[in-house]
Specification:
The complex is a heterodimer.
Chain A lengths: L3 H18 L3 E11 L5 E9 L4 E14 L2 E11 L5 E6 L15 H12 L14 E8 L6 E5 L12 H11 L2 H12 L3 H9 L3 H10 L2 H6 L1 H8 L4 H10 L2 H5 L1 H10 L5 H11 L6 H9 L6 H13 L6 H8 L7 H14 L4 H12 L1
Antiparallel strand pairs in A: 1-2, 2-3, 3-4, 4-5, 6-7
Helix pairs in contact in A: 2-3, 5-6, 6-9, 9-12, 11-13, 12-14, 13-15, 14-16
Chain B lengths: L1 E3 L27 E5 L10 E3 L3 H4 L3 E5 L8 E6 L4 E9 L12 E5 L2 E2 L13 E10 L3 E8 L3 E11 L10 H12 L6 E11 L3 H12 L4 E4 L31 H6 L16 H9 L4 E4 L2 E9 L2 E9 L5 E11 L5 H6 L3 E2 L5 H4 L15 E2 L2 E5 L43 H22 L1 H4 L2 E6 L4 E2 L4 E2 L7 H5 L7 E5 L3 E2 L2 E2 L1 H6 L7 E2 L2 E2 L4 E4 L11 E3 L8 H7 L2 H20 L4 H7 L1 H9 L9 H10 L1
Parallel strand pairs in B: 12-13, 12-17, 13-14, 17-30
Antiparallel strand pairs in B: 1-15, 2-11, 3-4, 4-11, 5-10, 6-9, 6-11, 7-8, 7-10, 15-16, 16-17, 18-23, 19-22, 20-21, 24-29, 25-28, 26-27
Classes of the chains: A alpha+beta, B alpha+beta.
Amino acid sequence: MISTKDIWPIVTLLMLLFSFAGKDTVRREKAFEVYTSDSIRIDVELVYNADNEPHHYFSHVRTPVCEDGLCDLLVIDLQWDLLGNFQRYETVTGRPLTKFDHEPFTEDDHLKLQKILTDSRSLLGENQLDDLIDEGTKKVSEEVDAVTGATKKAVQKAVVSGAVYSTYVLWHIVQGEIAERIPEHTQSIWNEDLLKDFLRSGNYHYQYHALDQLSTEQYIDYMPEILRMIDGESVFVSLYTLNHLPAQALENEQWQLALAQSYQDLSYRCQNKLLERFEEVELGGQSMEILTSATKTMNESQLETMLGLFQKNKASLTDETIRLLTGLLTHDNPVYAEKGYQAIKAMAPKNKAARKAIKDYEKN
Amino acid sequence: MKRLPFTLLLLVCTELLFLQKANAQKGGSESTVFIETESFSEKGGWKIDQQAFDVMGSSYLLAHGMGRPVADATTEVIFPGEGTYHLWVRTKDWAPYPKGPGEFKVRVNDTPLEQVFGSSGSEGWQWYYGGTTKIVDTRVKLALEDMTGFDGRCDALLFTKDKNFTPPQENDDLLAFRKKMLGLTDTPKDAGHYDLVVVGGGIAGTCAAISGARMGLQVALIQNRPVLGGNNSSEVRVHLMGDVDKNYYNKLGRIVRELDNGDPGNGNPDGDRYGDKRKLSIVTAEENISLFLNTHVDQVETKDNKIVAVIGRNIATNQEYRFSGELFSDCTGDGTVGFLAGADYRTGRESQEETGEPLAPEESDDFTLGTSNLWASVETDSVTTFPETPWALQFSDEYHIDEHKADWQWETGFGNFNTITEAEEIRDHNLRAVYGNWSYLKNEKKEKYKNHELAWVAYIGGKRESRRLLGDHILTQMDIQDGKMYPDATVTATWTIDLHFPDKENSQYFPGEEFFAATKHIRVKPYTIPYRSLYSRNIENLFMAGRDISTTHVAFGSTRVMRTCGMMGETVGYAAYVARKHNTNPRGVYQQHLDEFIGILENPSMDLQSQPINQELKRENE
């Protein structure tokens, strides 16, 4: 019979596991294992969410960290996303992270360690452990009969002060072979559901990855998701998506119109990219009408691009587009008015109102 | 005598005549009034910006409020008569992406005119029509009303009764029009004759002036800002680098030490720590120095490969001054005096074939180190906000700079912009990076930044590289790394070869628009700079000190730091003394008086006033 006393540690352990993994993760399976340079085995698990979808990778690590012949056991839980980007760590009860002379990590130390471990381009990747220590400056331990070198000034930002060895060892675990093997493992289980999840995730790593997997046909299939990314929070994801849109998506009447409708809500760089992409294809009358209504808020260089689109697509311009365009002739900015005038005149419109606007402008 | 007009660059226009409480000038029509905004009697929170003077031929007012509208600039003008006037405003949209934030209004007799200026979507300076206003009393109060605090700017106002009159938009036409209207004089005020005229009041120029003055020379020190110190002033806030304790001539560096106010780092929010007052008080204590602040030199008179005089204009009043002299020192950083005088100069990077330098690129190009507009935030007791800035650079979780203040890495240029002709654009690009990133941090990383507030953003750019004036010796990487000790060795330099380039990640996200730098420090042992790198090879009476001395691009990477530049200034002051004593030029000092000059470097007396040569020089000047 199991007593209450026996159950509590199990309950506590389960609570810890669930609190770390997130409340909606339910299943985990071993994905692969790696060995450190000290031949320590590290098992990496794939953790699923409540809907049984792959959610993240996890590892409970126990490894010695040795400093001038003195070794300490580092025990820690680590988490990566599905593409091997390190997400966070959590200490294990009874095994706090410590610095020189067993001084415990402060809150700032934890914040710094989290930042360092997340930085895949840290100086730690370029340096050997010995490069980080200035052997010329020794610190004497008060607790053990040992001395240790001080951290070199150039790498002080890249390590937690007093915990150079732990920082170095941990960084190489989270950014080393495991980070390389995770995308391979994810690729081995890649399917349409994951593709959809990645596109809808809001995680830019996932979104770039998914975009890179899309065939031209899939771009069309996933245009609702693509449009959400173009119109989304991240200017860089939006730019990337616009850059990689296949011509078929730009030519498609429905999606071309949707893209034109998104113009006003885009950031400046994305607006420019969209206009640039529109220069590659023929634009329909409705798309041109929507873009023309945006000319009032365009800057001079965007207006230049737009006037080029008028020339190129003049066959499809509606009366409403011409009417909107003639509005430029009375623009507050004389440069806009002149550019508008030159463009409309060159089109020699038959539209009466437009011809009158040209005459009025010439009179003034 | 040939008077060289200021012929620099693309946009050429001269200044409108300053009209404050005086009779309005009559120009193209009998009833036209011009007002230069930098001449407004009260600037309020607006700042005078002269950084594009060499391009525009004018200063202008800038509403630099870091997102908080600044107080109005105001003035009074006497109009030529009553009636209805048409207003024209010369301004620009500095961030037309697609519409900039620099909105402002013009108020006439406390009534704001309807038109909003500064967000037209056009990036160039031009005249904008502002509607009509009825003038009843000819004494008119004018005001510029900033609406956003985001760097709106205004060059000039024009009122005319002639409804068909349009001010010239083209630069050449505008130049002629302004001259005609305002009669910029061809005979500027005489500001005196000097043994040594030092142009540029950064660390190098200030040291040159003090050094020369203490040797008994009569010195003019001309600076185009209201403070001394240049990049080390409170306007730019770059700290002093380079050592002064490893000198071959160990008495060099004394003046640099005097000016050194301690090390507050780069971009410290406390501007006082850069010691503007210390620098000014040291200079004003020198009775042999005539100091001209707020004066931008834009013309040079030459005769037979010698400079006879330089002409500068006050950046607020537009009064022109003529400074004649025997010797001149170009401490402008940009090499402006040398350029105007026709001195040989170089910009960009030399090729490896040309210099033999291992660090030089294979092909020569226009690449230069960039310009920094440093900034700092401070922690406050309460939560503060900062607006969205859609016209600025845009950031995301994926890429932003997660820092509460700037350091040297905040830098724009790198061959994407010309550091002289596009100085305004470079500063503006820096501002777009600073504001865009800060807006991201304040709005998207509230937990970390909610209690931080922008305390200071530099509107004066800290330039690193422009022209290098060529001397009898051009310092190279080999000179530095081989530690060559020439007979005319002077200043000892210690800084690494520190050649910045765009940070790789920044390039990935902002290709061609980088604003963040990286570097690799190539270590050097202390080495000496030959005196022949401190004077022009073809303008006979021109010295240089500071970042525009005669080096290759690679060597410049090491000589450019300010304590080293300051010691160049000290050296130039001593050389000028020897040149005056023997009535020779800078080259003559090297060819005929090198031992004496080196003797002074070894043991410069700081009190030579009683020596015969100085009394003689003084009498001559009097």
